[in-house]
Amino acid sequence: MSTDNTAAELKLALDMLEKEKEISRDVLFDAIEGSLLKACANHFGKSDNFKVEMDRDTCEYHVYLQKEVVMEAEDPSTQISKADAKAYNPKVKVGDIVDIEVQSKEFGRIAAQNAKSYILQMIREKERDAIYSQYSGKQRSVVSGIVQRRVGENLTINLGKTDAILNENEQVKSENLRPNDRVKVYVLEVKKTEKGSARILVSRTHKDLVKCLFESEVAEIQDGTVEIKAIVREPGSRSKIAVWSNNPDVDAVGACVGVNSSRVNSVVDELRGEKVDIVNWDENPGRMIENALSPARIVAVFADPDTNIAKVVVPDDQLSLAIGLKGQNARLAAKLTNYKIDIKSETQAKDAPGFRYEDYMFDDDEDEFDEEYDGEYAEDGEYAEEEYTGDDEYEGEAEPEEEADDTDGEE
C-alpha cells in the first residue's frame, strides 16, 4: 500500500508529465501498474497471480497476491488453506480467491529500481509515440523551427519537442542559415525509426512551402474564396503563382497581395527576398500565357492546344522583359502553363512563320477560321507556350521541365 506522501508525490509527478510530455494520464497509470507487476515478477519470481489496484484520483495504490482457498495448501505461492484464509475473510470457502495485500517495501531495493526503470521506459515510448503522432499529422504543411547545428552538409532544425533534418538538397543555396535562426520549413516526410522515434525530413525549396505561406496569410484562401491553381518556383530567386477567385466580387491577385502589399511582403520576407509573381489563372490558354508572361506586354499569342506549343509576339522594347534574366520569366511561364513558348519581337515576327496573322487565315469554305490576338484572344483561338533558357536575343525554343505532381493545377 502506498503512503499518503508517496501518493501525493506520484500525483504531482503525473500532473507534470501529462503537461510537459503531453502523455495522457491513462497511459501513465498503465505504465505504473505494469511496473509494479514487473517488480513483483522480479521479487517473487512471477506475477501471474498478482494484481494492482490504483485510485486514479488520489494516486493511492495497492498490490495484492491472489491465492486460491483449499483445505490443505500444497503450493504456498498460489494456494492458502481455509484456516489461514479466514484471517482475511471469515466467510471464505474452498474455491474462493483471497486477496492478500503486499507491502511495496517487500519488493526490496532492486525491485524498486526495476520498477522505476520500467516506468521511465514506458514514458519514453509513449512520448515518442506522441511526437510521431503529432508530426505525422503535419506532413505537407509548414512548421516553425530554430536552426540548431550543421551536421556535414545537413542542418538540424529544432521544432520544439524534436529535431527535423534539412538535407543539403532541400536547402536554398542563396540562404545562409545559421544556428538560432528562426525559419519556417515544409514537412516532407515523417517516418518511425526502428527505435520508435520520429525521423522528420523538411524542405526550404519545395514549391508547396510558398503555397502554405500564402494559405496562412490570406484569409480568402483559407475560406475557399480564392484558390491557388498552380505554382512554379526557382528557390531563392523567383516564384510564380496562378490564382483564381470563386467570387466575382473578389480580386484573387489583390487578395494575395494585400493592402500595401502586406500579405505578399510577409511571404517574401519568410523566403528571404525571393521574388513572387502573382497572376490570374485563366482556362483560356492564350490569356493564361499572357498572364504568365507578366509584367511584359503582349501583342499576340498563337497557341496550339493539341501540341501545347505557343508562339508569342511582344513589342520590340518588351522582348528582354518577356524573356527575363537568363530566360527566367519565360521559363517559369512555360512551367506554369505547361506550354512550350516561343517569343519573338514584332520585328523578328514579320519574317517568322507562325508568328503572323496571315499564317492562320483559311478559306471561307473551310471549317477552320482566322485567329488573332490583339490585346484580346479569339474565343476558340490556338494558344501556346514555351520555356526559355537563352539571352534577350533568344530565338530558339525550350520545353517546360517536368516536376513531381505535388500541387493541383501545376505545370
List the keywords.
single chain; 411 residues; alpha/beta; N Utilization Substance Protein A, Chain:P, domain 4; OB fold (Dihydrolipoamide Acetyltransferase, E2P); GMP Synthetase, Chain A, domain 3; five-stranded mixed beta barrel; four-stranded mixed beta sheet; 12 helices; 15 strands; rod-shaped; disordered C terminus
Any overview of this molecule?
By secondary structure, the protein is α/β, with parallel strands linked by helices. The chain folds into 4 domains: 4-135, NusA, N-terminal domain (N Utilization Substance Protein A, Chain:P, domain 4, 2-Layer Sandwich); 139-203, OB fold (Dihydrolipoamide Acetyltransferase, E2P), CATH 2.40.50; 206-281, GMP Synthetase, Chain A, domain 3 (2-Layer Sandwich); 293-411, K homology (KH) domain (GMP Synthetase, Chain A, domain 3, 2-Layer Sandwich). Helix content is 31%, strand content 24%. The chain contains 12 helices and 15 strands. It has helices at 4-21, 25-44, 82-85, 108-136, 207-217, 219-222, 252-257, 262-270, 285-292, 319-323, 328-337, 346-349; strands spanning 50-54, 61-70, 79-81, 97-102, 142-151, 154-158, 163-166, 182-192, 198-203, 226-234, 238-245, 275-280, 300-304, 309-314, 340-345. It has a 5-stranded mixed β-barrel with strand order 5-6-7-9-8. Strands 1, 2, 3 and 4 form a 4-stranded mixed sheet that branches. Helix 5 (207-217) runs antiparallel to helix 8 (262-270) and helix 9 runs antiparallel to helix 11 (328-337). Mean pLDDT is 83; it is low at 363-398 and 403-411.
